[in-house]
Amino acid sequence: MEERDLALIRELAPSNPELDQLWREHLELEKQLEEFDQRRYLTPEEQVERKRLQKIKLAGRDRIEVILATHRAQASA
């Protein structure tokens, strides 16, 4: 994520509970995925779980991007 996005998340999260929750989930999912990436071999079940986590993380990131875009649009209007 770009630095300007991170700065905006830090600015908005305290006053936006949805963004705050999405960001915390994003960081937790990133941590879990990193644990999978550290392993040399994943069982088929672990591979499925890793894919599931990636999809959840992507959906959350998409929602974060929508929130940030909405804020930028309102700020420039």
Main attributes of the structure:
mainly alpha, elongated, 3 helices, 77 residues, 84% helix
Please write out the topology:
Blueprint: H1 3-12, H2 17-38, H3 44-76
Helix pairs in contact: 2-3
Structure description:
There is one protein chain. By secondary structure, the protein is an all-alpha fold. It is built from three helices and no strands. Helix 2 runs antiparallel to helix 3. It is elongated and about 50 Å long. The model has no long low-confidence stretch (mean pLDDT 96).
Helix content: over 70%
Write down the Rg.
15 Å
Beta-strand fraction estimate: under 5%
Q: How far is it from the N-terminal to the C-terminal residue, by CA?
A: 25 Å
- Counting DSSP H or I runs of 4 or more residues, the number of helices is 3
Biggest β-sheet: count, sense, barrel? none
By secondary-structure content and strand pairing, the structural class works out as: mainly alpha
Mean pLDDT: 96
- Series of secondary-structure elements, N-terminal to C-terminal: HHH
Poorly predicted parts? none
Would you report the number of β strands? 0
Overall spatial form: elongated
Quick overview:
This protein is mostly helical. It has helices at residues 3-12, 17-38, 44-76. The chain has three helices and no strands.
